[in-house]
Design brief:
The chain is an alpha/beta fold. Helix content is 44%, strand content 18%. Strand 3 (123-128), helix 6 (136-146) and strand 4 (150-156) form a beta-alpha-beta unit. The longest helix is centred in the middle third of the chain and has 22 residues, at 244-265. It is globular and about 75 Å long.
Length: 482
């Protein structure tokens, strides 16, 4: 008689016990994971999952390697701290081979049976890497309906696929929570440098402000942030930090471009998509047009438009649209800017940058945009401006447009240089935009180290180091978010 090829149930149970050490009295999550700083998003995420008044599963989505698994473990730690018994919590990583071929319901029922939970017992079930289960969204929706006393939380790294399937099949049953890459403020906290380098300014009528105790040391950390600081694992692990390309490229780029997106959108030529993303990554922050891109790459404009849509859905890039000096959108805009949502991806692809490299200007601009992307509402109001003034093209890197009045609110020119305060005539675009519009606050020009103010044709201009500007954006967005 042929032997059964099925994995014995006792082997599955043994793995479940190993992955859930808190089932044993006095045990908690892994000590190294427990020591990691909490993401700034953790209070909001944990409050959402702890609120069981609405019967829904929480689906945690985001790019690869931004700390989703660790945040689930931190949720386990909070549950234990609040008195939930360890045996009431199940953590399952669905990329574990022993779980392959098993349904979510069979694993949940195995947990309920092995721990002898009565039907009325409140339980917590956390599915990590849920994208490894085919039709996970159908199974999860069924579980939410069938087990009213269980709070289900799922996370996964195939961000585009997860979001699409969550919205299609989980309407009314799933609550989506997005976890982006680290902000610069979070990076400084993870690196243990925030308290040493940042001081809160006395409160005034404006938004909270900050100063740095050592701008040169802050810039060292800013360059580190550009190279690897968007990824918590790289900040906390010296081996990953020393060679981000080796440890991060496969998970962040190759799996998304060669596996996640092709499986979701039926992309046939994955190498073409990969080459296109490499071009965008190397040129992050540059203005591009489909016409020129098509000529350069030999890819049709229709396919390029699709690729851009896919890459945005995967949280890899963000398109920014152009306005003129009056903040009016172009009716037939043929150009736009593309930014990496995480500037560290460029280093993972092409190697680390140094403070004096030519790429620093565009990466500094990318870093500023990546902070704003942590607020969907604010980022939708941001554009860049470019227009003709005689024979000259004038430009401003960031223009905030009031969604109600369609008037500019503030404007920022991003530089990684201290030269501009002594060359104010180069700020003609910023000067003209400020002269034509009543901005809410003085135009800002970022620098490398200089802080101060100047007046150009009666217009006051503020100067601030770009690293401090990134910190200020991130700290204030996350403060108001939580």
């Amino acid at each position: 008689m042929a032997a059964s090829l099925d994995i014995p149930q006792h082997e599955v149970q043994r793995r479940l016990a190993a992955d859930n050490p808190w089932w044993r009295a006095g045990q908690g999550i892994d000590a190294e994971e427990a020591a990691w700083p909490r993401r700034a998003y953790f209070p909001q995420f944990s409050s959402l999952t702890l609120d069981t008044s609405v019967r829904r599963a929480v689906v945690l989505v985001g790019p690869r390697r931004v700390g989703k698994t660790v945040m689930l473990k931190h949720l386990v730690a909070r549950l234990l701290d609040e008195g939930v018994k360890g045996t009431q919590i199940l953590f399952l990583s669905l990329d574990t081979p022993l779980y392959s071929g098993r349904s979510l319901e069979s694993l949940v029922q195995l947990f309920v049976d092995s721990q002898q939970h009565p039907p009325e017992q409140p339980l917590w079930v956390l599915f990590d890497e849920v994208q490894y289960l085919k039709e996970w969204e159908v199974h999860l929706k069924s579980l939410v309906d069938s087990y009213p006393r269980i709070r289900f939380v799922a996370s996964g790294s195939a961000a585009a696929a997860l979001r699409m399937k969550s919205r299609e099949s989980g309407a009314g049953r799933f609550t989506e929570f997005i976890l982006p890459p680290l902000t610069f403020a979070e990076y400084l906290q993870f690196a243990g440098q925030e308290s040493a380098l940042i001081v809160d300014l006395p409160p005034d009528d404006r938004v909270p402000g900050y100063r740095t105790t050592d701008v040169n040391a802050l810039n060292v950390e800013f360059v580190n942030y550009l190279n690897y600081g968007g990824f918590p694992e790289a900040v906390m692990n010296p081996m990953v930090r020393a060679n981000p390309a080796r440890f991060l490229r496969q998970d962040i780029v190759d799996k998304v471009l060669l596996k996640d997106l092709p499986s979701l959108y039926g992309i046939g030529d994955t190498q073409e998509l990969n080459r296109f993303f490499n071009v965008l990554s190397f040129n992050t922050g540059n203005e591009i047009g489909l016409e020129d891109l098509s000529k350069h790459s030999g890819i049709s404009k229709a396919k390029l438009s699709d690729y851009l849509e896919y890459l945005e859905a995967a949280f890899l890039i963000r398109r920014v649209h152009r306005v003129d000096e009056n903040a009016m959108r172009m009716q037939r805009a043929r150009t736009f800017k593309v930014y990496l949502t995480n500037p560290s991806i460029r280093a993972a692809l092409f190697g680390m940058v140094m403070a004096d490299d030519d790429a620093m200007g565009n990466l500094a601009e990318t870093a500023v945009w990546s902070q704003w992307l942590h607020s969907a509402q604010v980022s939708r109001s941001l554009h860049y401006a470019r227009w003709k003034a005689g024979r000259q093209d004038l430009e401003v890197d960031i223009v905030s447009v009031d969604t109600r009045t369609q008037k500019p609110r503030f404007a920022v020119e991003i530089k990684w240089s201290d030269r501009i305060p002594n060359a104010l005539n180069e700020l003609r675009g910023l000067r003209e935009l400020a002269a034509k519009n009543a901005l809410v606050r003085a135009p800002l020009v970022t620098t490398r180290t200089y802080t101060g103010n100047a007046t150009l044709d009666g217009i006051e201009i503020e100067f601030m180091p770009v690293a401090l500007h990134c910190y200020t954006i991130a700290r204030n967005l996350l403060r108001f978010r939580t």
